[in-house]
Each structure stands twice: as C-alpha cells, then as structure tokens.
Amino acid sequence: MILWVFSQHQQTLQGHTSTVRSLAILHDKNRLFSASRDTKIRVWNIAEGICMDVIAAHTGTVRVITLSKAGDLLVSGGDDGTASIWRIANDGLVRLHILNHHENGICRIAFLGNGRSQVATAGFDGALKIWDVQDG
Amino acid sequence: MECLDVLGKCVVSQQISSDITVNAERSVPTVIQITEKYVIVAMLRGEIHVFATNGTAKKILSSSEGAVWALAAQADVLASAGTDNSIEIWNLATALVLQF
C-alpha cells in the first residue's frame, strides 16, 4: 500500500463562529455550502476563497444540508426541528418553504430518487417524514 | 474500514485506527464520503483518511484541531470542517508521497 500524507491544505475558509456540521459542494459552480452550530448557512466561492452569503437559517444548530441532484435546490435541517427548502441563486439562497412537523431536531435529509419533487427528513424524534417539494 | 460489493462480500478491508486501545474515543470515524475516485473517512480526532476506490492507495490528511464532522467532495476537491469552526479545502490530486 502507498501511504501519502498531505503537507498542507489548499486554503481555509473562516467565518463560522461554532462547529461546522455539514458541507455540500455544487458541482461545476465552485460553490460550497456550509451549515453550523452558529445557526447559519454560509455560501462560499471555493475558487476565490470568499464568503458570498450568510443566511440565518434556523434557530438552533443547522445539522444537515443536502443538494438536489440538479443542483437547483438545497434543503437544510436543524436542531429546531424544521427543514427549509432553498432555491440556489447566483449569489446566495432564497428560502422557498419551511417544513415544520418534527418534534425534535432533524439529523438526516435525502432527495428521493433522482428527482427534486420529494424530500425525506429523519429526526431525533424517531420519525421519517416525506415531503412534496412543490407543496412544501 | 471495509468495502462491500453489492452481494455483501467484502472486497477491500483497511485498518484506519491503530490506537483504539490507547485513545478509543478519538479513534472513531465520524463521516464517510464516497465518490467515483475516492473513499474518504473522517475521524473524531481530526485526521482524514483518503482511499482510492480501487483500494491501492491511501492518503492521510492532517486536519485541523478537533473533530471533523463534515465532508464534501467533488472530483479532486475535498472540503472538511468540524469543531474548530473553519473549513479546509484540499486538492486530492496534489498529494506528497512520503513513504511506501
């Protein structure tokens, strides 16, 4: 086996004020989304190393973010028990819907199949909920 | 780490924690990210193990202080982050070969 060790990383993006819990990279757009215990989602341009937007997304830790396969939507889930569906704009995020039916924090999110029409959320309340994105 | 094929047979098995008895709580894997080229495993103690999907090569990224809780990878770009609040961007294609 070949063992490689990196001497240094390429760059560090700083801005969050608490633990970063989830990351998502948008293919072919140099875009990185980060979710943090500081309740914010940040939008980064990886190539330039700059933060493009800071969004007050939840009232507690933003625990998970997931992109749709087409890269047009992002869903965030938080310890506040809500999930939000966001449209990915050129320089940030636009909130489309808030999904608010979990009794405890949301820990996992997945788009169903290859489409963008349904999202599943799993919570610390033991529930798995499936949402129609169009209806919110 | 073990890599299973679709029939559940283990095709690759890699040891990623050698000091479990010494420092068990920090040797725990926290996140796994799989792409076409890489299998990436982050550890509670902050290091990141990168395997080629064919199982032949392994890289260790010496990450920042604290646990790594999040990974995202696209092609040769890896983003990692965790308890130290900052996000690190790695180029997985430009590794230094230190030992064989």
Structure description:
The complex is a heterodimer of chains A (136) and B (100). The relative contact order of chain A is 0.15. In chain A, the strands form three sheets. In chain A, strands 3-4-5-6 form a four-stranded antiparallel beta sheet, with no helix packed on it. Chain A has a single domain (20-132), classed as 7 Propeller (Methylamine Dehydrogenase, Chain H). Chain A is built from no helices and 13 strands. Chain A is an all-beta fold. Chain B is mainly β. Chain B has one domain: Thrombin, subunit H, CATH 2.40.10.360. Chain B is 0% helix and 50% strand. Chain B contains no helices and ten strands. Chain B has strands at 2-4, 10-13, 29-34, 38-43, 48-52, 57-61, 68-74, 77-82, 87-91, 97-99. In chain B, a hairpin with a 4-residue loop joins strand 4 and strand 5 (48-52). Chain A binds chain B through residues 1-7, 9-14, 16-25, 27, 32, 34-36, 38, 44, 46, 49, and chain B through 50, 56-64, 69-74, 77, 79-83, 85-91, 95-100. Strand 1 (2-5) of chain A pairs antiparallel with strand 10 (97-99) of chain B.
State the helical fraction of chain A: under 10%
By CATH reckoning, the class of chain A would read: Mainly Beta
Q: Give the count of structural domains of chain B.
A: 1
Strand order of the largest sheet of chain B: 3-4-5-6
Number of strands of chain B: 10
Q: Which descriptor suits the 3D outline of chain A?
A: globular
Q: What fraction strand of chain A?
A: over 45%
Overall 3D geometry of chain B? Answer: globular
Count of separate DSSP helical elements of chain A: 0
Give the integer mean of the pLDDT values of chain A.
89
CATH topology of chain B: Thrombin, subunit H
Q: How are the strands ordered across the major sheet of chain A?
A: 3-4-5-6
CATH superfamily of chain A: YVTN repeat-like/Quinoprotein amine dehydrogenase
How would a crystallographer describe the biggest sheet of chain B? 4 strands, antiparallel
Quaternary state of this entry equals heterodimer
Low-pLDDT runs of 5+ residues of chain B are 96-100
Task: Give the radius of gyration of chain B.
Answer: 13 Å
Could you spell the SSE succession of chain B in H and E letters? EEEEEEEEEE
Count of alpha/pi helices of chain B: 0
Helical/strand content category of chain A: mainly beta
